[in-house]
């Protein structure tokens, strides 16, 4: 998103980018081109058999996620305490659509035991919030509970494409975590579901607890097929490492992870990360907020500049043991925005054929093994219905006072541009992002058209002041596109989302304040000082790439790679050897050279980073070959809401995006695009901090 006067390159179509950059087949788009060069839409925002325009809006109250109950408190090695949770993934029915329409079968996390009689043993999609304190670790027993009442495994709710490089349990120990070969095009996989949980944004976590994509595990089902691998390639290695370093034992159907929580107070979230299946597992429901509070850069360190005293931020938020439904008003609310599509029977819709994306069929041009096109995988998916905290188009009653919202873009491929501009009298300030508080509050109303761009997996800590908003009903809009995002502004560079469906997020019902607002106006907030990172010891050039199909005018895979000193990109697959291996304690600059026509939200596990700058990427004409590229022009500083500490950054097409990160904890981790369809088909790479570990799996 751009401010007026920003000269950053605008969104490029696939054809214009190929012509400008000379990179063969750059960009995922939902368009075809006529012989005269005009752009024609392939399809509108399609979905299942349920027409989203017939779904009633703003009839369901927003669910404020309750707090996940603990199983108890434990003593770690050395005697220090940690909070302990036992959390499973289960299948259940949830009323996502408005009452009167069918319920939806989903998956979700939930506690299986509680140390309190008030503990809410509820599975939900998205799930309950894990509330944690700075410097007090959290240990979680993550359980794959995808079994029926008889203990038999449940197949996936959605179509699994077995031709990707994926977990591949049917491959057995030898063939797991591979891209299998076939003699004829296979159907969807219907076996037991692999899962492994990743805490997105966790810093300093051991690699055994990071949710490595090849550390998945199947449920402990009674009928697992003979010969299936029940665990991923890295599971046993991490199981032994966890036992040695942390003490907990792992077993069939579960793993025990520990999070140190010694990073800045921040908004994290947890979700599945199984190899080649993240898009499907997360779409089915398992995700939730994980908040770290306190510490030297927490709420208590925010000052009111008028007095120098501790500022008062909007609250309270839900607390452990609160009644359900709550008997008090919440003024700090986590808000997970996701896009979905549904069938008339209430079931989730997700494409079961590549034909949904661009018309490719088994007859023309054919699928694996006859061509390089996977039969089910879609390069992107845009749901035609907006779901917020587990309900479609809910409403939230707000008083004429200030609120704090922790927003998460939990969509599949959709970039959001949250638009408060049609709420008269509102004042909106950004105070934090993924890694905690910003350098200073950012007035989105005065300087950014009352809008906020959010890439996939980005979070935003926002104060919304309803004090001067007229009583009544007002809608938070979304003006991000119903298609891949390449930068720019709505109307000028792309069509905004459908104003009748995906262009609406939730409704605020403004009522009079029940009392004086004690909170500090955001303009008077002094946020905790940022600690600058040490100078970098190395710069790495990384490529955001794709591989076009040799049989079809469309992408076969999204990819990552490296860029040599001459500007030449090298495509790399997930299975290729590690090419990024920072030394323990080093600070590095990573440059994301985006050779595609889409913006990509890039996420680096285990660390957080500073956004340094962005710069135009100029390439030379070279026909169908990949030409050398070079940055040109003056670098552009980060957006105001990108100051501070981040774990996900938008890399725009035709640009170099630079981040500075410190790599402090040794182990094996990953970096990837968080468009989950891209991530699941090769746009993810392993990286290693420090030397190879003794007896680690290959990679």
Structural commentary:
The protein is mainly beta and 699 residues long. The chain is 6% helix and 32% strand. It is built from seven helices and 36 strands. The strands form eight sheets. The chain has a seven-stranded mixed beta sheet. Strands 28-27-26-29-34-31-32 form a seven-stranded mixed beta sheet, with no helix packed on it. Strands 3, 4, 5, 7 and 9 form a five-stranded mixed beta sheet that branches. It is globular and about 70 Å long. The two termini are 37 Å apart. The N terminus is likely disordered.
Q: Give the N-to-C terminal Cα separation.
A: 37 Å
Please give the share of residues in helix. under 10%
Q: Which band does the percent of strand residues land in?
A: 25-35%
Radius of gyration equals 24 Å
How is the largest sheet built, in terms of strand order? Answer: 15-14-13-17-22-19-20
What does the average pLDDT come to? 92
H/I helix tally = 7
Give the beta-strand count: 36
Shape: globular
What distinguishing features does this structure have?
7-stranded mixed sheet, disordered N terminus, mainly beta, 699 residues
Summed up:
It contains 7 helices and 36 strands.
How is the topology of this model organized?
Elements: H1 14-21, E1 31-33, E2 39-41, E3 72-75, E4 81-94, E5 104-111, E6 130-133, E7 138-144, H2 172-175, E8 197-200, H3 235-245, E9 254-259, E10 266-272, H4 278-283, E11 287-293, E12 303-304, E13 332-340, H5 355-358, E14 385-388, E15 391-392, E16 395-399, E17 402-409, E18 416-419, E19 427-433, E20 436-443, H6 444-447, E21 451-454, E22 459-465, E23 472-478, E24 504-511, E25 525-526, E26 538-548, E27 555-563, E28 569-572, E29 586-594, E30 600-604, E31 609-619, E32 629-636, E33 648-651, E34 655-663, E35 667-673, H7 676-679, E36 684-689
Parallel strand pairs: 4-7, 6-11, 13-17, 16-24, 26-29
Antiparallel strand pairs: 1-2, 3-4, 4-5, 7-9, 8-10, 10-11, 12-25, 13-14, 14-15, 17-22, 18-21, 18-23, 19-20, 19-22, 23-24, 26-27, 27-28, 29-34, 30-33, 30-35, 31-32, 31-34, 35-36
